[in-house]
Amino acid sequence: MNFIRALNSVWRENNTLLCIGLDPDPAKFPAHLQHRPDAIFEFCRAIVDATADLVCCFKPQIAYFAARRAEDQLEALIEHIHIRHPATPVILDAKRGDIGSTAEQYAIEAFERFQADAVTINPYMGRDSIEPYLAYRDKGIILLCRTSNPGGSDLQFLDVGGEKLYERVARLVSKEWDVNGQCALVVGATFPSEIARVRTLIGDMPLLVPGIGAQGGDIETTVRAGCTPSGVGLIINSSRAILYAGKGEDYANTARSVAEATRNAINFHR
Ligand SMILES: O=c1ccn([C@@H]2O[C@H](COP(=O)(O)O)[C@@H](O)[C@H]2O)c(=O)[nH]1
């Protein structure tokens, strides 16, 4: 099944727009996991199994695995999600961007090595840097548009011929690059008026929205700005606020409680 069809199905079946970001930082793990060689896998696996019915996607961030030479644990984690929670798409947050020949290798990495359903991409190098990902016709390509960090405005707010750079990205992706109908855009919850602006430019294309939870984005304004008329269209990510809510052996249950409250708060405003 392609990414967008899987997303539509899980939005409906699980009645949720929440995505849990898997950003495993061993320094924040509970004591009982600290010295296990597979601690990164085990930490994330327990969170995944405790929350799968509450989410529309899981989003592992590759840097947290690569920084600790734990790419094998990322492979094992994505395989685990596909086997145990086959309806839940996995977004590999890698923010890749390079010339076509190198992008081909990044696409192999994301879709063949890691078996991700979708990958985040930096659009800054233009259309030919996206082509290798488009060759995987069923896979999701999620392009940075209006990022959640304060410095995002340095470039994304520049005027480019009468529109802002992030608006140009939204227009280009939705009108020209999305040849397989599998593209989505990243717009931060920290900038709700830009979420609304992007929504007017792209129709029903999904938005991956990081920035609630630890970054302080507001759930109500995010949902009101970004939902499509049928109450979907958003993949609202929270990572640290859920992963590290609990400090003890029952951390996965604590994560579930916070995830459930977040899912409910999102649904309240849909
Ligand atoms: O604009 C962006 C794009 C990606 N991210 C990523 O999302 C999560 C956010 O984590 P929190 O702990 O919920 O703040 C993280 O993996 C970022 O790399 C983003 O924050 N903003």
Automatic annotation (TrEMBL):
Q: Which reaction does it catalyse?
A: orotidine 5'-phosphate + H(+) = UMP + CO2
Under the heading Gene3D superfamilies, the entry gives: Aldolase class I
The UniProt record lists the keyword Protein biosynthesis = no
- UniProt keyword terms in alphabetical order: Decarboxylase, Lyase, Pyrimidine biosynthesis
Q: Which InterPro entries does this UniProt record tie to the protein?
A: Aldolase_TIM, OMPdecase_AS, OMPdecase_type-2, OMPdeCOase_dom, RibuloseP-bd_barrel
Asked whether the UniProt record includes Lyase among its keywords, one would answer yes
Domain Orotidine 5'-phosphate decarboxylase span(s) in chain numbering:
17-255
What does the record give as the active site?
Answer: K95
Specify the pathway. Pyrimidine metabolism; UMP biosynthesis via de novo pathway; UMP from orotate: step 2/2
**One GO BP annotation here?**
'de novo' pyrimidine nucleobase biosynthetic process
What's the EC number here?
4.1.1.23
One family name in Pfam for this protein: OMPdecase
A Gene Ontology molecular function term of the record: orotidine-5'-phosphate decarboxylase activity
Q: Which CDD domains match?
A: OMP_decarboxylase_like (cd04725)
Which NCBIfam families does the record associate with it?
pyrF_sub2 (TIGR02127)
Q: Which family does it belong to?
A: Belongs to the OMP decarboxylase family. Type 2 subfamily.
From the Swiss-Prot or TrEMBL record, give the protein name: Orotidine 5'-phosphate decarboxylase
Organism of provenance: Candidatus Accumulibacter phosphatis
